[in-house]
Amino acid sequence: MIRNFSLSDKIGDVVTVFPGASDLFLKYKIDFCCGGNRPLIEAMDEQNLDGNKILTLLQASYEEFQEKNEEFTDWAKEKPSKLVDYIVSVHHRYLKEELPKISELTFKILRVHGSNHEELFKVHKLFNTLRTELEGHLVKEEEFLFPIIKEYDTNRNDSNREKVLKLINELEDEHTGAGDIIKELREVTEHYIVPKDACRTFQVTYEKLRELEIDTFQHIHLENNILFKNI
Fold first, then answer.
1. How far apart are CA 138 and CA 169, in angstroms?
2. Per-residue CA distances from 138 to 85, 123, 131 (Å)
3. How many domains does the chain have?
4. Which residues make beta-bridge pairs with 10?
5. Coil, strand, or helix at residue 199?
6. Are 146 and 161 part of one and the same domain?
7. Residues 93 and 139 in one domain
8. Which residues form the Hemerythrin-like domain (predicted)?
């Protein structure tokens, strides 16, 4: 069944129904993870975007997706435990593999290009602050939150739910903090556009920072807008 989106729809709900919407939202810098509870119209007004244009593009993309009838996992209909396993195996694994690599790269381009590009000092500082936040966050999720969610999934009592909700409130605040750092990185790097004198390592670093933004926003969306709401 074709759904007709409206500007009153919450951003996170749109991505839950149609995951492909995240590509459009990323293109127009519409926050669908930490800002997923806001209606589309609010984001449009805030960024002076043409709401009707975005809505038309969104609807066309969604209808094309529906016509192709491609299979996808509707995580809103899956058990929280299954989504937890997916988040750990995909998004947590990505961060554990990529954060050390990006850290090394940001230091390398700072050392080589810092004298000509002072913004790299801020890029290096912001990224390593983000890395510290994310690594601690992964531990909290894997060692504390996710085991309790799995326990609650099999034994839905008030005591377990209270434990989960307490941790969720703390981790949602951390999501917001991480999202803010990523947005600042995007601004400092001028949307990850490398300067004309950039070497290949410089290019790779900015490409990886862009990939980190995309993956982290998808990661936070799954938690804030689907997993946590299903508790």
1. 15
2. 13, 22, 11
3. 2
4. 39
5. coil
6. yes
7. yes
8. 87-229
Decide if 80 is inside a domain.
yes
What is the pLDDT, as a whole number, of residue 1? 58
Residue 6 lies in a domain: no
- The alpha carbons of the chain give a radius of gyration, in whole angstroms, of 19
CA atoms within 13 A on the CB side of 223: 31
Each residue's pLDDT tens digit, 82-95: 999 999 999 999 99
Q: CA 60, CA 42: separation in Å to the nearest integer?
A: 21
**Rounded mean pLDDT, 29-39:** 89
- At residue 215, the pLDDT reads 96
pLDDT of residue 34: 85
d(C-alpha 165, C-alpha 228), whole Å: 8
Portion of the chain with pLDDT greater than 90, in percent:
78
Structure tokens at 104: 């090394």
The model's pTM: 0.88
Q: How far is CA 25 from CA 13, 136, 218, in A?
A: 13, 28, 11
CA 121 to CA 189: how far, in whole Å? 11
Looking at residue 162, its pLDDT comes to 87
Read off the pLDDT of each residue in 29-56 and give the average, rounded to a whole number. Answer: 90
Q: Does the pLDDT value for residue 175 go beyond 90?
A: yes
Domain shared by 209 and 114, yes or no: yes
Does 46 reside within a domain? Answer: yes
Q: What is the 3-state secondary structure (H, E, C) of 124-167?
A: HHHHHHHHHHHHHHHHHHHHHHHHHHHHHHHCCCHHHHHHHHHH
- Coil/strand/helix, residue 55: helix
